[in-house]
Design goal:
By secondary structure, the chain is an alpha/beta fold. Helix content is 38%, strand content 20%. α5 runs antiparallel to α6, α6 packs across α7 and α7 packs across α10. The structure holds zinc ion (ZN).
């Protein structure tokens, strides 16, 4: 049972969950969903806050599904915005490739922030005491937030009930894998009773979730191509959710036009167009994550 001051707004895979921490002094919101759905995000936040204003918006990390509503929330509430310290250079520069925006066919309204949060910083949010912890791996600059008295971890994409956010292959692969392992091990040392993940419902079977994550990590450690295929499929489903559908006849051109796919194919796979499309979409269809109807592809 969560303390009343902690309210999680469970969304989907396009929009990260938002978490509202409502105290006597102020209301803090963690993560703001994807830009396309910013209006819906605003109304879900208003519901969660029962009409109170957001005083402070914080991000676990700066990916489009977590910061996409930042501009809208800041505009609507005139609130303070804080991001993880090590994301600041990317956000200042608004580097569309490093932020995986145009590079991966994702969108995010540019926003400004007031200050940054570093691992070890402590806060009173929702009348509870929280500590920011480093959560590198999926995003090397990511943070998570832990409240010891409530045993609650706001994990972002560092730990879900079934796995964690995509890990990138490439030259930094070893560093990302070992950072992910260190982050999971640091969670295992915390007295966590409830995890509020970036995607999916809150969960209390923390040990079982950790076990699944360690297994996934071990599979990635053994096989870089598995990481490549996983990234391609996750990004494709994300874009299908964003675009709502894609014409089958446009699929090859679409994959050619988004730099992420072209780069990954060239660097790791060297497949012709048909084989590359089948590797991504065929696998997703066989697994039931994508379906084909009336000449269009849809995310399920
Ligand atoms: Zn996410």
């Amino acid at each position: 049972m969560l303390p009343f001051c902690i309210r999680i707004i469970v969304r989907d895979w396009l929009n990260a969950n938002s978490i509202a921490l409502v105290g006597r002094q102020r209301a803090v919101v963690i993560d703001s969903g994807y830009g396309r759905d910013a209006e819906h995000t605003l109304s879900r936040i208003s519901e969660a806050l029962a009409g109170k204003h957001v005083d402070w918006l914080v991000n676990t990390h700066c990916h489009s599904d977590h910061m996409g509503g930042n501009a809208a929330v800041r505009n609507a509430h005139r609130c303070r915005v804080s991001i993880p310290r090590d994301e600041a250079p990317l956000i200042d520069a608004w580097d569309e490739e490093a932020l995986w925006l145009s590079y991966a066919d994702q969108r995010c309204d540019r926003f400004t922030f007031d200050d940054t949060i570093a691992p070890g910083d402590e806060f009173d949010w929702g009348d509870l005491h929280w500590r920011a912890l480093a959560a590198p791996g999926h995003d090397m600059a990511a943070l998570m937030f832990f409240c010891e008295e409530a045993g609650v971890l706001i994990s972002g994409d560092a730990l879900w009930e079934n796995g964690f956010g995509i890990l990138l292959p490439g030259p930094d692969r070893a560093a990302r894998l070992s950072a992910t392992r260190a982050t999971l091990e640091s969670i295992a040392c915390l007295p966590v009773r409830t995890v509020l993940p970036g995607h999916g419902r809150p969960f209390t079977e923390v040990g079982a979730a950790m076990e699944r994550s360690f297994q996934r990590l071990a599979a990635f450690e053994r096989d870089e191509l598995r990481m490549v295929r996983h990234v391609l499929k996750v990004m494709f489903v994300f874009s299908l959710m964003d675009r709502r559908r894609l014409a089958v006849e446009d699929l090859d051109d679409y994959l050619d036009s988004v730099p992420l796919y072209a780069d990954f194919n060239r660097q790791y796979l060297n497949l012709d167009r048909t084989a590359f499309a089948d590797l991504i979409v065929g696998d997703l269809e066989r697994g039931g994550a994508v379906r084909r109807m009336d000449g269009f592809l849809f995310a399920v």
